[in-house]
Amino acid sequence: MRIVLVGPPGAGKGTQAVRLAEKLRIPHISTGDLFRANISRQTELGKLAKSYMDAGNLVPDEVTIGMAKDRMEQPDAANGFLLDGFPRNVAQAEALDRLLQEENIRLDAVLDLEAPEDEVVKRIAGRRICRNDSSHVFHVTYNASREEGVCDVCGGELYQRDDDSEDTVRKRLEVYHSQTEPIIDYYKAQGLVVTISSMGPVDEVTQRALGALKREDAAR
Ligand code: AP5
Ligand code: MG
């Protein structure tokens, strides 16, 4: 399957993407994680991305689209992928459509994770991620690691993302509403959007998402 995951910062896209990708046996492609990996390797791309990310703004399209394209062209993504955080504005959605058209393939679904703003603020405030791999995501109370400050998956150090400060989160939410939400209408026009609530325990949300994707697949 080829799936796009959309939803506000803190909705649980990364948390669900890891679980869904494993169940559906497709790679999880997160542009946020790709940028963070570049930041920790101190590449030129990482330095550029960090200046935008720390301000809560989107990294420019020309950089982001090229990076996402390179990742989608890796052999493990030949039969499907789960995109997390890309596309993030209408120009990126149009660029993705062009890429898919060139390959004669199409998306199967756009999974929209809904969560109220006060909930996403609480989720982000307590989020801790792993220094080794930012797709290893925890929460100090809702999804705590077994040992405080230590990643359950790889033993890496857990820390708070630089862009999870109160001011930057406010800006990211604003950018989500103004730039990312319009892609939901863009994909509704293509009949691809499946909306689910992201409230409740993580495993329940995963089951809800799998059920919704299965119904969507059967309806095609
Ligand atoms: P990105 O890394 O994509 O961040 P985001 O979209 O703001 O989303 P988050 O990662 O904050 O939230 P999430 O929905 O993944 O939630 P999570 O699963 O962690 O992007 C960061 C930046 O990179 C952007 O601001 C931009 O600058 C740049 N960027 C990235 N892609 C770009 C693009 N395409 N174009 C341009 N710029 C781009 O969960 C949150 C917390 O909640 C965790 O602590 C988790 O444990 C907890 N949690 C999860 N589910 C539940 C639950 N059901 N109940 C209770 N707690 C839960
Ligand atoms: Mg994420």
Describe this structure in words.
The protein is of the alpha/beta class and 220 residues long. It has one domain (2-27, 74-219): P-loop containing nucleotide triphosphate hydrolases (Rossmann fold). It has nine helices and eight strands. The chain has helices spanning 13-24, 31-40, 44-55, 61-72, 90-102, 117-125, 166-180, 182-188, 202-218; strands at residues 2-6, 28-30, 81-84, 109-114, 127-130, 137-139, 158-159, 193-197. It has a five-stranded parallel beta sheet, sandwiched between helices. A hairpin with a 6-residue loop joins β5 (127-130) and β6. It is globular. BIS(adenosine)-5'-pentaphosphate (AP5) binds at residues 7, 9-15, 31-32, 35, 52-53, 56-59, 64, 85-86, 88, 92, 123-124, 126-127, 137-139, 142-143, 163, 172, 198, 200-202, 205. Magnesium ion binds at residues 13-14, 32.
| Average pLDDT number | 97
Residue fraction in strands: 5-15%
Q: Determine the N-to-C terminus distance.
A: 12 Å
Query: How do the strands line up in the largest sheet?
Result: 2-3-1-4-8
CATH topology title? Rossmann fold
What is the number of strand segments? 8
Report the order of strands and helices.
EHEHHHEHEHEEEHHEH
**Major β-sheet annotation:** 5 strands, parallel
CA radius of gyration is: 16 Å
Shape by Cα distribution = globular
| Number of H- or I-type helical stretches | 9
CATH architecture: 3-Layer(aba) Sandwich
Helix/strand class: alpha/beta
Key traits:
220 residues; alpha/beta; Rossmann fold; 5-stranded parallel β-sheet; 3-stranded antiparallel β-sheet; 9 helices; globular; binds BIS(adenosine)-5'-pentaphosphate; binds magnesium ion
